[in-house]
Every structure is written in structure tokens, then in C-alpha cells.
Amino acid sequence: MKIERLHHIAIICSDYEVSKYFYTEVLGFTVQQEIYREERKSYKLDLALDSTYLIELFSFPDPPSRPSFPEATGLRHIAFAVKDLENWKLYLENKNIHVQDIRVDEFTGKRFLFFNDPDHLPIELYEI
Length: 128
Prior knowledge:
Blueprint: E1 9-13, H1 16-26, E2 30-37, E3 42-49, E4 52-59, E5 78-82, H2 85-94, E6 103-104, E7 111-116, E8 122-127
Parallel strand pairs: 1-4, 5-8
Antiparallel strand pairs: 2-3, 3-4, 6-7, 7-8
């Protein structure tokens, strides 16, 4: 048995339009498909990065809250590889997004930073 690759990450958001804007306009994902499922009163938005399907963004009426911080049990964070971490930090701050200080991975020597999506999902940018 062999896993070939990561297929997608599924995210449930509390405010569909806010999260759709964040992932498309701020982070630069492109919409592959957007479906409204009437029976569930729910959107499903398929997002890609460089033509690679990566995120399913869901909306549901009144989803329950979930603890979400990097040290909580469960999914720790999602991470995206970027070039020029300094410019990303400035870009996000100019969008009024709180960004943690740039840190250095003690094992790889690579720089990274954290910020949150609109529902406080921790996101890491890791400089390559």
C-alpha cells in the first residue's frame, strides 16, 4: 500500500463570503468549482493553487466552534511554501491580518511565520 500524494484539505468556515475572499483574493487560490447544495444549505468551493486542486471550502448553517491553535490536539496547521517571506509578511499586514514574527526552524534553518484565516485556523508560510 502506498499513498500517492495529498489530495485536498477540507475546511468548514463560519462566513462563506469572508473565507472565499480570504482564500482567493488574499492568498491567491483560484476557483475550480463552486456548488450550492440546497438540501444542506451549504456551499462547496474547490480551490486550486497553480492548477493543483488543494482546498475544499465548505459552509454549513451554524457550524460548531472547534478549538484552533497550533498546540491543540488534532490538525496543527496548514503550511504553504513561499518565496520572499518578508514581502509576504508586509503584504498580509497591509491587509490588516495579524502576523506573528518570522522565526527560524531549528532543524532546517528555514524561516517561517504564522497567521490565522478568518476562522482562526493557523496557517504557516514556510520559506523555500
